[in-house]
């Protein structure tokens, strides 16, 4: 059991974001740099499936080196007490799915900017790795707006149904909410 304040994989746990049988997701802070990140500890039952674990490790090896301003960055992964863990970028913002998308609540320019950012991320992963994101939906987009309501950035996550040259998909399918705040 992980508690607030615990140190796990060189990160101090700040708060629990979600917990279910498949995964526990935490907002954490690196002990060596104070950078905030998202830590996902996959559930023991999920990790008993060694084939899934091997696919998940391969998937992270493909996704982790990718750097793009519109992709949530994966920083690392490993195993702890027979459970797979993953650390990724924390984006101070909200899932696009939690936003009200009526014309009165979000300016059309901001909506266009979100679509443009997501398109740039999709183009990048296709050109660089031949990966197709199989489930682009508002729940797999993290958005951050400035105080004036202008979009700062939209980042894509959740490569759960990804298909392509690398067979990416196992890890993200099980933990599609892992990098959301």
Offer a concise description of the structure:
The protein has helices spanning 44-48, 50-63, 108-129, 170-174, and strands at residues 7-8, 11-20, 23-30, 36-42, 74-80, 83-89, 94-95, 131-132, 141-145, 151-156, 163-164. The chain has 181 residues and is an alpha+beta fold.
Write the layout of secondary structure elements.
Layout: E1 7-8, E2 11-20, E3 23-30, E4 36-42, H1 44-48, H2 50-63, E5 74-80, E6 83-89, E7 94-95, H3 108-129, E8 131-132, E9 141-145, E10 151-156, E11 163-164, H4 170-174
Antiparallel strand pairs: 1-2, 2-3, 3-4, 4-6, 5-6, 7-9, 8-11, 9-10
Tell me what you see in this structure.
The chain is 25% helix and 32% strand. It is α+β, with helices and mostly antiparallel strands and 181 residues long. The chain has a six-stranded antiparallel beta sheet with strand order 1-2-3-4-6-5. The chain has a three-stranded antiparallel beta sheet with strand order 7-9-10. A two-stranded antiparallel ribbon has the order 8-11. The chain is globular. It starts with 6 loop residues before the first strand and ends in a 7-residue tail after the last helix. The model is unreliable at 160-181 (pLDDT under 50).
